Amino acid sequence: MIKVLGVRFNIFKVLLFVVLLGICEIAQANKKIELCIENNDYKPYLQAGPNGQDNVEGILIDIVVKSAQQADLQVKFVRFPWLRCQSLVKSGELQGLLLMIKTPERQTEFAFPDDPQYMYQNEYPIIVKKNGPFDTVETNTPSIFYQDNSLNINTYRTRVVSGLSAPFGYVAYQFLQQQNLLSPVNADLKTAAKLIENGRLDGYVIARSFADAFVKQPDVSEKLSVTSGFVLKSNVYAPFNLDYYQKNKTIVSAFWQALHENRPHKELSYLVKNQNDK
Question: Quick one: three-class SS letters along 154-171?
Answer without folding.
Answer: HHHHHHCCCCEECCCCCH
